[in-house]
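In response to reviewer comment 3 from the previous cycle, which asked for concrete evidence that the modeling workflow produces usable outputs, we include below a single protein chain processed end to end. The sequence was submitted unchanged, and the resulting structure tokens are shown without manual editing.
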Amino acid sequence: MAKVKICGLMRLQDVHAVNEYKPDYAGFIFAPSRRRLSIEQAKMLAEQLNPDIKRVGIFVNELPEVINKTKRECGLDIVQIYRDDNTIDSTIEGKVWLGIRVKDENSLRIMKRVRAEAYLLDAYDPQAYGGTGETFNWELAKRAAMLANIVLAGGLCASNVAEAVNTVRPYAVDVSSGVETNGVKDAVKIKEFIENARSVR
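The workflow returned the following structure tokens.
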């Protein structure tokens, strides 16, 4: 059964929803985005999160010392990083997920060069690092999932997540805009997404 990550939490209401429906991971964004949080905001939200839900911090082209400081202050369990040079600095502490924007099969070659706890695959957009709400070729993700832990992202929602899980068989699925209404997290959509993702055995 695929694990579930609800990303882009911004409000206490979002935390209350995930505490009720219990995804495996909750994501806090520290990169340029309308969902970006300060360390203080993320720490406050993370402290209210059910301790059984793993805290994931999302960073883009950030300095390792900033990542480590944020990780410690917010009690992050995992850091998810995007880097233009597709590297992971060895001084980053703890578990690291590497975000890959999938343009074509060549995009996945990085998995052979860079070791990570998991690889988050998202749709390619030259202007954005995730959060685009667009899907990509799941057949590429399916092949990647045979080689490593894959976190499937990009355009997922309650209506397509079961098909995505059945097709790709990823380690986990990731959603942000797909569980929002008018730009904010929707508890009903979170519930439906988690139930549908976990319906595939």
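Strands lie at 3-6, 25-29, 54-60, 78-82, 95-102, 118-123, 150-152, 172-175, 180-181, 184-185. We consider this sufficient to address the reviewer's concern, and the full set will be provided in the supplementary archive.
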